[in-house]
Specification:
The complex is a heterodimer of chains A (366) and B (694). Helix content of chain A is 41%, strand content 18%. Chain A has 366 residues and is an alpha+beta fold. In chain A, the strands form 2 sheets. Chain A has a 7-stranded mixed β-sheet, sandwiched between helices. In chain A, strand 6 (269-276) and strand 7 form a beta hairpin. In chain A, helix 3 runs parallel beside helix 6 (80-106) and helix 7 crosses helix 10 (248-263). Chain B is α+β, with helices and mostly antiparallel strands. Chain B folds into 5 domains: 2-69, Phenylalanyl-tRNA Synthetase, Chain B, domain 1; 82-283, Phenylalanyl-trna Synthetase, Chain B, domain 3 (Phenylalanyl-tRNA Synthetase, Chain B, domain 3), CATH 3.50.40; 292-368, Phenylalanyl-tRNA Synthetase, Chain B, domain 1 (2-Layer Sandwich); 388-593, BirA Bifunctional Protein, domain 2, CATH 3.30.930; 605-692, Ferrodoxin-fold anticodon-binding domain (Alpha-Beta Plaits, 2-Layer Sandwich). Chain B has 20 helices and 34 strands. In chain B, helix 10 (297-304) crosses helix 12 (355-366). Chains A and B meet through helix 7, strand 1, strand 4, strand 5 and helix 10 of A and helix 7, helix 10, helix 12, helix 13 and strand 20 of B. The complex binds zinc ion (ZN). Zinc ion is lined by residues 289, 291-292, 296-297, 299-300 of chain A.
Chain lengths: 366, 694
């Protein structure tokens, strides 16, 4: 039987083939040989992939596959008399080989190579790091305010009293300074750690004529003893919009847009009159509680509202410090606590967690 | 400020129940934190903003409530029986420091009987958190809580020559205040003196000597106006904040001074008897005129963006005491765009001096909720920070490498910071720190990074990789400077044990690989040996960006074990500190210069060289020797394996070098490759004394 394989190394001339019947017989023997090899593999029980690959190599291999030899030795030199029969038989056999190989791979046992995988075991994990929640929150705020035309600018943390207080209409001895207990720099007289990101209001307006529409991220410092809701360093985002046509209604719309984007479209907002030296009219901005939706819960101390931040229309006195015409321009400003926003959104009850940098905290916000 | 609901009703026709007031008042700017019951009725705890001293009194809050509910205010009437003797005959008042005290009134009451206050008075004071002293002192406190004007009662017989002199303190002067403490005074403090000595610190606290006692018979009631800044400065300097100083430093109603002491006289007569002398000694050298302000609808619309009806404007301003009068030519027509209201700010509203102040009054009582919300159209594209994009790429790469971002408080311990402080750097020192361990601004990111590693190790987190985008701070020539920095820190396992792979310690090579991975964004880095006190010698490198080679960008290495010990770290830690700004610029430059290279069309061929080298022969040297041959087909030089010991003699090491060749124009022939290999082998032998192993 095996000599049928030998025969594929020889031409018809040497084999003395002289009739179509002989050709049919040769191809029948080849198919029988192929089927036998296929059966032998199955009997040995090798894996399907190897099985089909081995058969493919010995029958279809480019250099020495049986069918390649048949094509080279029988088909190519064939006389016109046998060409047609040969071609038909060759294609028939080729089809048989192809479909058999395909069958093997399709058979139900094709992929069950050894014991099946325990899907509950972990995969190979390349550890990924995380971005800090404060940074993630800033990114979200930049996206929200960027989408309504606010550019990002930055300023120094070690500030002068002029920009931190005076240019914001908080002269020395103003009682408002009591709420912003300040760290002073001993070896750089006249400098302090900024108590808010508001100094960038004057710094920006000094350099730029309206329209101004900026947000200012950064660290701020207050001389408060640390506890669950206080830290002597925290993060703010200042907002400022000034132009010839900015009104209280625009201020409300902007605040409302922010709240709905940040806490969800169902969020309602309200403005309560308040007082800040650098805004007038001033307001405290409350958002409906995102936990209970306004019904009252622990987060909102049963009020249904959560105090967000202070804001208001820019006090015309502030324009005086930057040589803007207060009769021509108007605008609004707000200063939101970034850590506080993240605390509210994710239900974090301890501000100190943000700065301890325990990886068990950091990894909670991948 | 605590407010008694029942007391409010004495000044206005309030019908709304106490429980309803908090929400209404909050939406008009008076935040009420709580409502509690007391023996004197419901008590509202109000948060009064610092611009509204007039609300530190029941009459003032009642006015606000009346304006809110549009109900009537009741006039306050006083009935005092005055004797025929004039007060001015008995006592004299001189103001020597009119800049500190603009008005001083004194009322004299003779023959009072000091005794405990009646129940109703004690109840009210106690409900508001004040303790009852005696009838006269309680009355002065009561009137302050009622009208907002702080009063002080002196024992007239203890005032030398029954004379009051208001003057600055003299250098070195002292006095004992009511609380029994001897106070050191300074020359910008306002003193109330008798003919002989100080008897009170103006607007802050009275003196112990002239205090009302149970033997007091005759009284001088002071009702004055003190300069807010002076009172504030004095009370801060002395660390003495009182109900009186709180009101004066925010601005008391100068016109209310005489009336408040009249009200006190009335109550004292009721509770302590005595005769009030006729009139009041009133020194008020420059009576103040009331502020006239106009409010135009045009400006209201410009600021608020939506209108408020005429009637609302009229009613609100009138109820708050601004006496509005329409003065425009269209005053007959409602809703006129030309409408202008001429107003007069009442003496108790020193905070209202400009049109914008009136606009705020109208807007807050009309209701902020009545103004529609709309988004202003954006006129300019929104810009991110310069290099925000480059920073984002750095950050995402660090996260991909497994590093967690931290945010640290830059106020640190000076001793710790000094370990990492670069030479010739002066830290910014906090003059008034909360604690010693947060008293300088850090000069190195490593200060915070090592603390973060320490925290995690102390909390059972042994395998940690961290990064921080932050700043370092210093003082140069008396001026502060802030520089952005990127810090990396790693300790523990680089790879944890799992079913798929074994555990592996984080090593210098991990740090180098990670740092190189991020600096690839900037075109790659050069590592050169460096000495830094906080890094282990032999494991410390100075990093510079390789394209220009000379831009030093930072340092990296293993934390010196002596430093690790000070922080009680029981495992090795690896740190890197990079200057951020030049790095971001380099990333921007490098990204802009990136250009496509066609993919090779001909196969690459590798040749391995097994070398035995003397210790101290660096890989960089080997690379230099091979590259110096200028073989254009040379593509890559890699160190594939390195070992010491075994058959390799001491002082030597074995290195498996893999060199890759590739041509852009043809498949390399065997003879070309043989030639390359031979040239490399002989160059290495010649230049480095390398022996080739079979
Ligand atoms: Zn809630």
């Amino acid at each position: 039987m095996a000599d049928i394989l030998e025969k594929t190394n020889l031409t018809f001339e040497k084999l003395g083939v002289s009739s179509a019947d002989q050709i049919l017989q040769l191809f029948a023997q080849l198919q029988e040989q192929f089927d036998k090899e296929n059966r032998d593999f199955s009997a040995v029980g090798v894996r399907n992939l190897e099985h089909s690959e081995a058969l493919r190599l010995s029958w279809l291999g480019r250099k020495s596959g049986v069918l390649t030899r048949v094509a080279d030795n029988w088909l190519k030199p064939a006389t016109p008399t046998f060409k047609r029969t040969l071609g038909e038989e060759f294609n028939k056999l080729k089809k048989h080989v192809d479909s058999t190989l395909e069958e093997i791979l399709k058979s139900p046992s094709a992929d069950s190579e050894g014991p099946s995988i325990d899907l509950s075991l972990p995969g190979v994990v390349l550890p990924l790091g995380t971005e800090h929640l404060v940074h993630q929150t800033y990114e979200e705020l930049f996206r929200i305010f960027g989408s309504i035309g606010f550019s990002v600018v930055e300023g120094p943390e070690i500030e002068t009293a002029y920009y931190n207080f005076e240019a914001l209409n908080i002269p020395e001895h103003h009682p408002a300074r009591d709420n912003m207990d300040t760290f002073y720099i001993e070896n750089a007289p006249g400098y302090l750690l900024r108590t808010h990101t508001s100094p960038m209001q004057a710094r920006t307006m000094e350099k730029q004529q309206p329209p101004v529409r900026i947000v200012v991220p950064g660290k701020v410092y207050r001389r408060d003893n640390p506890d669950a809701t206080h830290s002597f360093m925290f993060h703010q985002l200042e907002g400022l919009a000034v132009d010839t046509d900015i009104t209280f209604c625009d201020f409300k719309g902007t605040i409302e847009y922010f709240a709905k984007e940040f806490f969800g479209p169902q969020t309602r907002v309200r403005l309560r009159p308040s007082y800040f030296p650098f805004t007038e009219p001033s307001a405290e901005f409350d958002a409906s509680c995102h936990v209970c939706g306004g019904a009252g819960c622990r987060t909102c101390k049963q009020s249904g509202w959560i105090e967000m931040f202070g804001a208001g229309m820019v006090n015309p006195a502030v324009y005086g410090f930057v040589n803007y015409d207060a009769k021509r321009y108007s605008g609004f400003a707000f200063g939101l606590g970034v850590d506080r926003l993240a605390m509210l959104k994710y239900g974090i009850d301890d501000l100190q967690q943000f700065f301890k940098n325990d990886v068990r905290f950091l990894r909670q916000f991948p | 400020m605590k407010i008694l609901y029942d007391w409010l009703k004495e000044f206005a026709d309030i019908t709304a129940p106490a429980a309803e007031l908090p929400s209404r008042l909050s939406m008009a700017g008076v935040s009420i934190d709580s409502v509690e019951e007391s023996a004197a009725g419901p008590v509202l705890d109000a948060e009064i903003t610092i611009n509204r001293p007039d609300l530190l009194a029941h009459a003032g809050v009642a006015r606000e409530v009346a304006a809110l509910y549009r109900v009537n205010l009741k006039p306050i009437q006083t009935k005092v029986k005055e004797s025929s003797d004039a007060a001015a005959k008995v006592a004299r008042v001189e103001i020597e420091a009119p800049d500190l005290c603009a008005r001083y009134t004194a009322r004299i009451i003779r023959g009072v009987k000091i005794q405990p206050s009646p129940e109703w008075l004690r109840q009210r004071l106690e409900a508001l958190g004040q303790s009852s002293i005696n009838n006269v002192v309680d009355v002065t406190n009561y009137v302050m809580l009622e009208l907002g004007q702080p009063l002080h009662a002196f024992d007239l017989d203890k005032l030398s020559e029954r004379r009051i002199v208001v003057r600055r303190a003299k250098p070195g002067e002292t006095m004992r205040t009511l609380d029994g403490i001897e106070r050191k005074l300074s020359k910008d403090m306002c003193l109330i003196c008798d003919a002989r000595a100080p008897v009170a610190i103006g607007g802050v606290m009275g003196g112990a000597e002239s205090e009302i006692s149970f033997s007091t018979r005759n009284l001088l009631i002071e009702s004055a106006w003190f300069d807010p800044i002076s009172v504030r400065r004095t009370s801060k300097t002395l660390g003495l904040r009182t109900e009186a100083s709180l009101r004066f430093e925010r601005g008391a109603d100068i016109e209310a001074a005489a009336f408040a002491s009249l009200r006190a006289a009335e109550l004292i007569q009721q509770l302590a008897g005595g005769e009030a002398l006729a009139g009041v000694v009133d020194v008020y050298p420059h009576p103040q005129s009331l502020c006239k302000i106009e409010l135009s609808r045009k400006e209201l619309l410009r600021v608020m963006g939506a209108d408020v009806p005429d009637r609302e404007v009229d009613e609100i301003l009138a109820a708050l005491g601004f006496a509005p009068v329409r003065v425009d030519v269209n005053r007959g027509s409602a809703g006129s765009l030309a409408a202008v209201w001429a107003c007069t700010a009442p003496s108790w509203r020193g905070d209202v001096t400009r049109e914008i102040d009136l606009i705020e009054e109208v807007a807050r009582l009309y209701g902020y909720d009545k103004f529609p919300a709309r988004l202003p159209p954006a006129k300019q594209p929104a810009a991110r920070l310069p290099h925000a994009y480059e920073e984002a790429r750095l950050r995402e790469r660090l996260v991909a490498l497994g590093y967690e971002e931290i945010v640290a408080i830059p106020l640190v311990d000076p001793e710790r910071d000094a370990i990492f402080r670069p030479a010739d750097t002066t830290a910014a020192v906090i003059g008034n720190p909360l604690s010693e361990d947060a008293s300088v601004m850090r000069t190195s990111g490593a200060t915070s990074m090592v603390s973060a590693l320490e925290w995690n190790l102390n909390h059972g987190q042994k395998n940690v990789r961290l990064f921080e985008f932050g700043k370092v701070y210093e003082v140069r020539d008396g001026k502060p400077a802030e520089t952005r920095t990127l810090s990396l820190g790693a300790t523990g396992l680089a790879r944890e044990q799992s079913i798929h792979q074994s555990a592996r310690e984080f090593s210098f090579a991990d740090l180098k690989g990670d740092v190189d991975q991020i600096l690839t964004l900037a075109g790659g880095a050069r590592w050169e040996p460096a000495r830094m006190p906080w890094l282990a010698s032999g494991f410390a490198a100075q990093l510079s960006l390789s394209p220009n080679g000379h831009l030093v960008i930072g340092a990296a290495g293993r934390l010196a074990r002596s430093v690790a010990q000070r922080f009680k770290l029981r495992q090795d830690a690896y740190l890197a500190e990079l200057r951020l700004e030049p790095l971001l610029e380099a990333i921007a430059r490098h990204s802009a210069a990136l250009r496509y290279e066609p993919l090779p069309r001909f196969p690459a061929v590798e040749r391995d060289f097994s070398l035995v080298l003397s210790d101290g022969t660096t890989f960089a040297k080997i690379e230099d020797v091979v590259r110096a041959l200028d073989i254009p087909e040379l593509r890559r030089i890699e160190a594939v394996d390195l070992f010491r010991g075994g058959q390799i003699p001491a002082g030597k090491y074995s290195l498996l070098l893999r060199v890759t060749f590739q041509s852009e124009t043809a498949t390399l022939t065997e003879s070309q490759l043989t030639d390359f290999s031979a040239r490399i082998a002989s160059a290495l032998g010649e230049k480095l004394g390398t022996s080739l192993r079979a």
